[in-house]
Design a protein that fits this description.
Elements: H1 2-22, E1 28-36, E2 39-41, E3 44-50, E4 53-60, E5 63-72, E6 75-82, E7 85-93, E8 97-104, E9 109-116
Protein name: Lipocalin-like protein
Keywords: Signal
Signal peptide: 1-20
């Protein structure tokens, strides 16, 4: 019985370790190439990651704003508010690249591709 418990605990540890390794570290400065039906731009993000939590700053055509988000595995979500309008970036990320969809408060949608500086 004790051997089964130890074996199950070992399997749980391996699964937890594998999940932690699958989550890239996105901390750092990023340049995004954004294409929307309302135009394009190349905003910058300065991100700090602590576990699954992301904080940081957006700087671009819309101004400057604090960013919050999450990363779970390779799935990333970033958001910030400019003049009461919620901007959302949803996609996938590695330690050096990310891509996905952007929603500009329902007024425009499009795609983004980012690279870490």
């Amino acid at each position: 019985m004790k051997a089964i418990f130890i074996f199950l605990a070992f399997l749980f540890f391996l699964d937890f370790s594998a999940q932690a390794q699958d989550t890239p570290n996105v901390s750092g400065a990023w340049t995004m190439n954004v294409q929307t039906d309302a135009g394009s731009g190349t905003p910058g993000f300065n991100l700090k990651q602590e576990g699954e939590k992301i904080t940081g700053t957006y700087t671009g055509q819309l101004g400057e704003a604090p960013v919050t988000g999450t990363i779970k595995g390779k799935v990333i979500h970033l958001e910030f508010s400019i003049q009461g309008n919620l901007i959302k970036y949803d996609g996938t990320a590695t330690a050096t690249e990310m891509e996905g969809k952007v929603d500009l408060a329902g007024m425009a949608t499009g795609t983004f591709k980012g690279t870490k500086k």
